[in-house]
Backbone:
């Protein structure tokens, strides 16, 4: 399927899903749906660096929070519309991703991973000590009374996140089926051999961290309007970091489908558990599922669906000529 | 007309206190077939790594086609025209055999000198390369389904895919059968006839003697001989360094 | 006035460093020597803290004593975890991404498990050496930090002796350098690593005791320590104990000075900032250890 076709199909899906959602009367659906969609973006973003390139990022919450807190700052300064916030959040988080990459990408796997964690905590510490955004006390964001286009603000947020999810998925797939995607796969499989084959590994890795970070930042930008009260404890919640890792690993890291499946699967389980049993137990589930899948089903849900024996019949990828 | 393709002067490399390479001098003309031999641990692979850019040499200089290699990352050197196969095959495990060859085509050949490959050309070139190493039946297989020997052939094919000016084959023949060695030799001869300079690193003396126009011997990080194969082999110092083959 | 403050900050920093060394030594073994990126190590330390808490609150047992009692159990826990890790990842050669995710999941499970069991309140222990402070010249040395410091030094020194003098210890050092050679000497690397990782987690029991003596503990504190322990291991040169000790002291002093003069809320940034800097500045060659 050509790139254009996929983008169009995704756009159509978004429109269809949105139209279907207009039929739902219970607002709870939109609140929960927003969270799942947000996770689709986070998981997809994470997978670009983790699944495609092979570099595991523990600092998802850092990039996510950069998006959220840049929105807080802009909101306090002059309150631009959400799409603007998303773009700004994406640019800032992408820049940080680029910087972090520059510092840590020459390192081997574990060290890089620890570096990402270090970055997230450094960002968190700075924000906790920054009074303008409320510091550790947090900040209240008042939602505008009506939303553009739709009236109900939560419906508007849902639509935004739906569009963002569509964009994230389309971007991921475009990468997958392109020269860049091949390069990243080579880096993931054997970085030395990739360099020897002419792949500019550092450059591509930087592209990967920047893009991944930018998408995470974009996912975080609307957050203040969703939660209306934002403090570092919730903004940097470990749940984001774990889910961003667990969802692709559970769903499958080899294609864009995995993070989506994982986000829907784990997101739904968590929401159901949170509402029916307790809110801590749902995090326990995620942890347990993560460990279980990593140990038993390394290729995730996708892998379970396509047992190893049948791999030979997998349709050959048809990338376009050099992007 | 022969121009100097590779010029290495006083090259040295150390790991902490251990001197892996000491004052290596080597000149390779375009189109030559050079054999590089030496006991295990003599620094052959380190030398290749220094040339290809995986390691940075500590002293001396290396020039390829007049371009200084110092400071160039490995992928730049590949684009310049140096390709190497790895002694222990390092295939891209999640990609098919054909896709393994795609990587050098996409990243080295494509874009070099303004050349733009179409999808059809890439696919055709992959087929051609696979046929040259007799792996065309396995285009859609994964590296894990290949035998050791097939993996070595893939390794060689991947180096060839980068359309190099200089191909360094690092012990590509180890463990192969008599006829398989002949196949690889024939392949290397054919590549050389097509204009590719080849440095053959091997332990299998029969192959080295048959192939090399010139023989270089490395022992404990020093070059102790460099000349015609017959002369080098009868050199007493070389005999001393080698027990057996 | 500032001089006194400064000296005290240094002193408490050194004591803190000694404690950090105790928390880190397990990781120095697991990650520095065995190449196992056990992100969950701090979570086991917290687990140790809570075990001491139970012993202390229920039966009035001294926390350090409690930890010593728990040590064999933690050893077994470590061995069990390594077994799973080995079977799932190391044997298949897939330590990378999945191995890390495994430990990350464990970290999470442990933390959430503790929250479910104990809630998010801070817990503390009582012991005779927790209140008093020693006054030496202008320097105040709180016994609650001095005691763990002293015992930690003993523990690390003891482990160092174990590694260099006993057969098993030297096998562990050997496996960290060259497991193939070890195999040729007909010692199974797997067994050696199993014991080593068991020891690694066993240290968490005592470290946990130290932690809850020094400060009140709640389940999510472990996260603050991930960066610290990895920073110390990396700075200290991976497997080296003396290096680790030095690095721990350095970190302790840096944090203490920051807390005294800028406020405690900046302390996490010190550890992680130091870590980032170390990672960024060290040349790639040294970090690519097992090529």
Residues:
């Amino acid at each position: 399927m050509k790139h254009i076709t996929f983008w169009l199909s995704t756009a159509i899906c978004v429109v269809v899903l949105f139209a279907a959602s207009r039929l739902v009367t219970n607002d709870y659906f939109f609140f929960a749906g927003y969270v799942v969609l947000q996770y689709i973006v986070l998981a997809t973003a994470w997978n670009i660096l983790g699944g495609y390139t092979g570099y595991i990022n523990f600092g998802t919450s850092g990039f996510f929070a950069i998006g959220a807190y840049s929105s807080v700052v802009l909101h306090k300064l002059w309150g631009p519309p959400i799409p603007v916030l998303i773009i700004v959040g994406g640019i800032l988080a992408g820049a940080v991703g680029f910087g972090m990459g520059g510092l840590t990408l020459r390192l081997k796997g574990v060290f890089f991973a620890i570096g990402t964690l270090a970055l997230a905590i450094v960002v968190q510490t700075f924000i906790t000590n920054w009074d303008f955004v409320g510091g550790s006390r947090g900040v209240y964001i008042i939602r505008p009374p009506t939303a553009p286009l739709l009236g109900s603000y939560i419906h508007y947020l849902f639509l935004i996140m739906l569009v963002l999810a569509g964009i994230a998925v389309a971007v991921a797939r475009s990468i997958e089926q392109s020269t860049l995607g091949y390069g990243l796969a080579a880096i993931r499989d054997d970085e030395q051999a990739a360099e020897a084959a002419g792949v500019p590994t550092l450059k591509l890795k930087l592209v990967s961290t920047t893009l991944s970070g930018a998408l995470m930042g974009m996912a975080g930008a609307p957050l203040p309007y969703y939660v209306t009260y934002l403090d570092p404890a919730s903004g940097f919640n470990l749940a984001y970091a774990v889910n961003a890792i667990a969802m692709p690993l559970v769903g499958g890291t080899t294609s864009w489908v995995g993070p989506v499946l994982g986000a829907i699967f784990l997101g739904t389980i968590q929401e159901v558990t949170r509402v029916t049993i307790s809110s801590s137990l749902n995090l326990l589930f995620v942890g347990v599922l993560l460990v279980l899948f990593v140990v038993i089903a390394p290729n995730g849900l996708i892998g379970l669906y396509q047992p190893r024996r049948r791999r030979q019949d997998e349709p050959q990828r048809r990338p376009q000529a050099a992007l | 007309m022969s121009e100097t393709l590779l010029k290495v002067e006083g090259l040295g490399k150390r790991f902490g206190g251990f001197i892996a390479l000491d004052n290596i001098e080597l000149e390779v003309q375009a189109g030559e077939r050079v054999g590089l031999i030496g006991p295990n641990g003599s620094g052959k692979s380190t030398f290749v790594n220094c040339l290809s850019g995986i390691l940075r040499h500590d002293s001396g200089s290396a020039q390829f086609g007049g371009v200084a290699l110092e400071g160039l990352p490995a992928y730049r050197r590949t684009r310049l025209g140096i390709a190497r196969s790895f002694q222990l095959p390092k295939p891209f495990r999640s990609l098919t055999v054909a896709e393994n060859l795609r990587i050098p085509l996409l990243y080295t050949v494509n874009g070099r000198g303004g050349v733009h490959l179409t999808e059809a050309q890439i696919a055709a070139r992959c087929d051609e390369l696979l046929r040259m190493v007799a792996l065309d039946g396995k285009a859609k297989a994964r590296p894990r389904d290949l035998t050791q020997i097939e993996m070595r052939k893939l390794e060689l094919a991947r180096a060839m895919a980068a359309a190099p000016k200089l191909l360094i084959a690092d012990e590509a023949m180890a463990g192969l059968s008599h006829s398989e060695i002949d196949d690889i030799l024939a392949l290397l001869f054919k590549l050389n006839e097509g204009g590719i300079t080849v440095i053959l690193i091997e332990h299998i003396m029969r192959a080295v003697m048959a192939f090399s126009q010139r023989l270089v011997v490395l022992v404990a990080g020093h070059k102790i001989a460099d000349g015609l194969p017959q002369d080098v082999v009868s050199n007493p110092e070389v005999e001393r360094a080698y027990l057996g083959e | 006035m500032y001089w006194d403050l400064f000296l005290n900050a240094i002193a408490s920093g050194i004591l803190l460093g000694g404690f950090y060394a105790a928390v880190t030594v397990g990781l120095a073994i697991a990650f520095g020597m065995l190449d196992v990126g056990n992100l969950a190590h701090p979570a086991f330390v917290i687990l140790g803290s809570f075990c001491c808490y139970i012993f202390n609150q229920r039966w009035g047992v001294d926390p350090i004593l409690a930890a010593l009692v728990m040590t064999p159990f933690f050893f077994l826990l470590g061995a069990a975890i390594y077994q799973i890790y080995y079977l799932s990842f190391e044997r298949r050669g897939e330590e990378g991404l999945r191995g890390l995710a495994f430990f990350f999941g464990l970290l999470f499970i442990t933390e959430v498990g503790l929250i479910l069991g104990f809630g998010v309140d801070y817990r503390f222990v009582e012991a005779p050496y927790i209140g008093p402070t020693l006054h030496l010249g202008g320097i105040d040395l709180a016994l609650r930090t001095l005691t763990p410091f002293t015992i930690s030094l003993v523990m690390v020194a003891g482990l160092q002796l174990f590694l260099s003098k006993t057969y098993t210890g030297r096998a562990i050092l050997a496996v960290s350098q060259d497991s193939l050679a070890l195999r040729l000497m007909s010692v199974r690397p797997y067994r050696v690593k199993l014991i080593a990782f068991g020891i690694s987690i066993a240290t968490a029991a005592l470290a946990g005791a130290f932690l809850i003596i020094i400060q009140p503990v709640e389940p999510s504190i472990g996260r603050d320590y991930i960066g610290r322990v990895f920073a110390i291991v990396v700075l200290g040169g991976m497997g080296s104990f003396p290096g680790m000790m030095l690095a721990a002291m350095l970190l302790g002093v840096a944090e203490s000075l920051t807390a005294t003069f800028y406020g405690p809320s900046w302390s996490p940034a010190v550890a992680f900032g130091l870590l980032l800097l170390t990672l960024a500045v060290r040349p790639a060659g040294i970090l690519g250890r097992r090529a």
About this structure: Confidence is low (pLDDT under 50) at residues 309-323 of chain A. DSSP finds 15 helices and two strands in chain A.
